[in-house]
């Protein structure tokens, strides 16, 4: 387990360093200079104070008024943010009570050493002044210039004594591009944290494998629903009409309603009786027109008694003479 703890500690250390480290950049120094109140005469130019390094900066205040101002200008890159100005002290007098503010200038200025006092840019400290911070040992002064940075990345400030400052003089070393420290904005994806290291299982113990990921069962289509075919429509039975008896008692004559289903009868079965009836009617009509006597109707079976008139009735066919005796065999 000691090896596992060492691996976890190393991974945590690497992650902390990767996530907490912020790249630091340096802006481009474009110009710097300072103005001295002693350089106010019109006849000759005085040499600068010997305490100020060559190409350095100076900020000073006398009991009656300011004596020296300085100015510095940087240009940031698009990836640089949070500028912080850090100047190294070369010489100081009364630095413990000194107060130095950074303010925006009123116009674009040109750098130089111990320039004429009346050519200095005015400071817009009422629009927002950033007070400098002196280190404990007095080796450096620092100003956070994030609020004084323009939208185009230009950092242009004037260093002046504070409003309520006492008499002091602070001279700085020549500034370089490293004097303005910035933070580089990330341009790519953030580094991924290292995966957690799982400690190995102790010897002798059975380690259960991780359960497999459950796979949802595929969707099954619903079973088809059987639809019963519609029941065949059965036509209701036709009512049967009983045959009507004739007035003469001659037997029942089927009326028109006696036919159960005339449409179901074949055409030939219906046409033959009709043809015979028409033929007989036509024959009787012809005989009637020619004056041929019509034979009397003979009864059949029990109706034959009492029907004979005693006269020899002549007619056609089997009606030509009276039948007597046993009828001849048909075979």
Question: What would your notes on this structure say?
Answer:
This protein is of the alpha+beta class. The protein has a domain at 24-184: Sandwich (Jelly Rolls), CATH 2.60.120. The protein is built from two helices and 15 strands. It has helices at residues 2-20, 267-290, and strands at 24-26, 28-36, 57-61, 66-75, 80-93, 100-105, 123-124, 130-131, 133-134, 140-144, 154-161, 168-172, 180-184, 244-245, 252-253. Strands 1, 2, 3, 4, 5, 6, 7, 8, 9, 10, 11, 12 and 13 form a 13-stranded antiparallel beta sheet that branches. β9 and β10 (140-144) form a beta hairpin. The radius of gyration is 70 Å and the shape is rod-shaped. It starts with a helix and ends in a 41-residue tail after the last helix.
Average pLDDT: 74
CATH topology of the domain at 24-184: Jelly Rolls
Low-confidence stretches: 14-22, 241-265, 303-309
Radius of gyration: 70 Å
How many distinct helices?
Answer: 2
| Distance N to C terminus | 132 Å
How would you characterize the largest beta sheet?
13 strands, antiparallel
* E-strand count: 15
Q: Do you know the CATH architecture of the domain at 24-184?
A: Sandwich
**What is the ordering of alpha helices and beta strands?**
HEEEEEEEEEEEEEEEH
Q: What is the share of helical residues? A: 10-25%
Percent strand: 15-25%
Q: Regarding CATH, which class of the domain at 24-184?
A: Mainly Beta
Principal-axis shape = rod-shaped
Map the helices and strands.
Elements: H1 2-20, E1 24-26, E2 28-36, E3 57-61, E4 66-75, E5 80-93, E6 100-105, E7 123-124, E8 130-131, E9 133-134, E10 140-144, E11 154-161, E12 168-172, E13 180-184, E14 244-245, E15 252-253, H2 267-290
Antiparallel strand pairs: 1-13, 2-4, 3-4, 3-12, 4-11, 5-10, 5-12, 5-13, 6-7, 6-8, 6-11, 9-10, 14-15
């Amino acid at each position: 387990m000691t090896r596992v703890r060492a691996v976890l500690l190393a991974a945590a250390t690497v992650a902390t360093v990767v996530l907490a480290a912020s790249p630091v950049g340096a802006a481009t120094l474009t110009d710097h200079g300072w103005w001295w109140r002693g350089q106010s005469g019109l006849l000759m130019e005085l040499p600068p104070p010997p305490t100020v390094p060559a190409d350095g900066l100076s900020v000073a205040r006398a009991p009656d008024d300011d004596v020296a101002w300085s100015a510095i200008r940087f240009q940031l890159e698009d990836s640089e943010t949070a500028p912080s100005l850090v100047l190294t002290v070369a010489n100081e007098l009364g630095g413990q009570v000194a107060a130095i503010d950074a303010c925006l200038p009123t116009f674009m200025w040109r750098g130089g050493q111990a320039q004429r006092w009346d050519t200095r840019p005015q400071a817009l400290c009422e629009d927002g002044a950033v007070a400098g911070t002196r280190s404990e040992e007095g080796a450096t002064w620092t100003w956070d210039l994030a609020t004084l940075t323009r939208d185009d990345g230009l950092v242009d400030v004037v260093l002046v004594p504070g409003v309520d400052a006492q008499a002091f003089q602070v001279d700085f070393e020549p500034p370089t591009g490293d004097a303005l420290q910035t933070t580089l904005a990330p341009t790519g994806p953030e580094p991924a944290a290292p995966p957690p290291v799982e400690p190995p299982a102790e010897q002798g113990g059975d380690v259960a494998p991780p359960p497999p990921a459950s796979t949802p069962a595929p969707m099954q289509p619903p079973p088809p629903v059987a639809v019963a075919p519609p029941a065949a429509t059965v036509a209701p039975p036709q009512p049967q009409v009983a045959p009507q008896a004739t007035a003469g008692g001659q037997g029942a004559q089927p009326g028109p309603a006696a036919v159960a289903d005339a449409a179901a009868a074949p055409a030939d079965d219906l046409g033959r009786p009709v043809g015979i009836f028409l033929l007989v009617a036509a024959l009787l009509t012809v005989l009637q027109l020619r004056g041929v006597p019509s034979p009397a109707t003979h009864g059949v079976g029990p109706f034959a008694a009492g029907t004979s008139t005693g006269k020899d009735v002549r007619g056609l066919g089997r009606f030509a003479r009276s039948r007597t005796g046993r009828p001849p065999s048909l075979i």
